[in-house]
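Regression test attached.
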Amino acid sequence: MANPIVYGPAFSTYVWSARLALAEKGVTHELVDVPFGAHREEAHLSRQPFAKVPAFEHDGFSLYETQAIVRYVDERFPGTPLQPEDVHQWSRMNQIMGIVDAYAWPSIAGAVLFNRVLAPRFLGREPDEEAIAKALPRARLCLAEINRLMEDHRFLAADFVTLADLMVIPLLYFFANVPDGKAPFAEHPKLMNWIGHMETRPSFLVTKPSW
Ligand SMILES: N[C@@H](CCC(=O)N[C@@H](CS)C(=O)NCC(=O)O)C(=O)O
């Protein structure tokens, strides 16, 4: 049986989430780099017609959309389950994953990280400070909500790692490591502790991109 393949650059937060799910399940995978810009070329569009990363393949089965990929990984492979059986925790996990797609990725990655890190590095552009400032209130609200929804669990939706943790950690890890994240995270020591726990997991260490 062939190893699963993840297509995309290692630094993409969504690519990282897909790889984290595989690593948590103890599944060896291949990462096929899709350099910035190549995601709009025909070779990648045949895998992901919306020109986004990641795309995924396993045993002749092709998939895109990160939530679908991480759910497939959890259902398809043996190992510790990454979805709670308790319906409230399972719903909380789904809610947090929804927050990532609808609010956290657009504000934290699409606006703050793109302008602060990616645009200068890949496009040779100065950060758009206005776009960053405009996104920060939404990014702060995401932190406040994730912090609130976590209640007093060890991880975001339960006392064990779930898909919610794997969808959120790339965004919050990067955000905590840019200057714009300093003040927002100062208000949420519980989330800083959670990042500290996540950072020590073998899945994090083997998939962490060099940024
Ligand atoms: N709904 C997609 C979103 C993936 C996504 O937005 N990926 C970003 C990188 S983290 C991307 O491909 N950006 C390239 C672009 O928008 O041109 C998923 O869940 O996989």
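Expected vs. actual: identical. DSSP finds nine helices and four strands in the chain.
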